[in-house]
Amino acid sequence: MHPDVIAVDRTMRTKVEIATRAAATDLSVLLLGEHGVGKALFARLIHAASARRAGPFEEVNCAAVPPDLLEAELFGGADGGARSPGGGHRPGRLEHADGGTVLLDAVGDLAPPMQAKLLGALQHGRIYPVGSGAGRTVRTRIIAASDLDLESQVERGAFRRDLFYRLNVLPIYLPPLRERPDDVTALAHHFLARSCATSGRGPLRFMASALSALREHRWPGNVRELANTIERAAIAAHSSIEAHHLNLGAVLQDQASDAYHGESLKEAVRAYKRRFIRGALESHGWNQTSTSRSLGIQRTYLSRLIKELEIANR
Q1: Taking the mean position of all CA atoms in its chain, how far away is CA 118?
Q2: What gap in Å lies between CA 252 and CA 25, rounded to an integer?
Q3: pTM score, whole prediction
Q4: How far apart are CA 114 and CA 156, in angstroms?
Q5: Which end of the chain has the least Cβ crowding within 10 Å, N or C?
């Protein structure tokens, strides 16, 4: 099992068992769950427990690669399609991971043409690089992941039904961290031990106030948010971690400080929007696609707000 897959919660232990059994097969696995819940870790768990473990593991975030570059990223290219000096063939991720595993994260964000090409690769086990008419056979296992409700996407016509059925042979839904408080405590201790070992400092311990705060927090960013929180607390603390080291009340403190200080209403609204948008981006690892989805706005509008409010990732 992957060292970062901590499963104390009964439901999560069942998910680990299913993933381990899936590793012994070549069935298509679809990992579902909110952003930051651990889908990539489960994909690595499946790869490491499979007969492909000696082969490569590649991870592609379909929402992070520009659509006009994604086809070459996955399938490779030839001559002009390869975008390489002197032309020639440049293998894509699926070919590079031949005999191994590729995780296609955010698969629900694929554009229709890419959905069709992925379906063809899954059906025939062959890929067609950009700019080349010659197909190449690959033995790559594809694991798909999404934080979208793909069935709803299919009903809306945004995702191909035949591709959904091809990917959804064995779906594994990973519940959000707020629904498994026992895992919060176990993961917190795991991340703290890892942080201390990495930094070379002596062991730290959680005080009761910190453990209580960890269990009460809603964790909108799931496991990723928890890991970042523990890393920050380990730097701030001396011999033990108190609740205030976690800084989980920072949002409430910011709201409490929103008293009138002589600024105009327009300035106050701008400051609040800036904090709000920044907080949402941080909770989603600065992924604009998932952030805009959680806020219920278009990604283009979010990008415009980031520019207007001068929000930088630092």
Answers
A1: 20
A2: 48
A3: 0.76
A4: 18
A5: C
d(CA 15, CA 176): 13
By the 8 A CB rule, do 222 and 177 touch?
Answer: yes
Across the chain, which has 314 residues, the per-10-residue mean pLDDT values are 78 95 94 93 96 96 90 80 56 92 95 94 90 83 94 94 96 94 94 89 90 91 92 88 83 46 69 80 80 78 86 75
Identify the three-state secondary structure at position 80. Answer: helix
Secondary structure of residue 84 in the 3-state scheme: coil
CATH code matching the domain that covers 178-248, chosen among 1.10.8.60, 2.30.130.40, 1.10.3720.10, 3.40.50.1820:
1.10.8.60
Where b means 16+ CB within 10 Å and e means fewer, 258-275 reads eeeeeeeeeeeeeeeebb
Query: Is the CA virtual torsion 58, 60, 66, 70 positive or negative?
Result: positive
Contact 206, 192 (CB under 8 A): yes
Whether 87 and 138 have beta carbons less than 8 Å apart is answered as no
CATH number, domain 251-308: 1.10.10.60
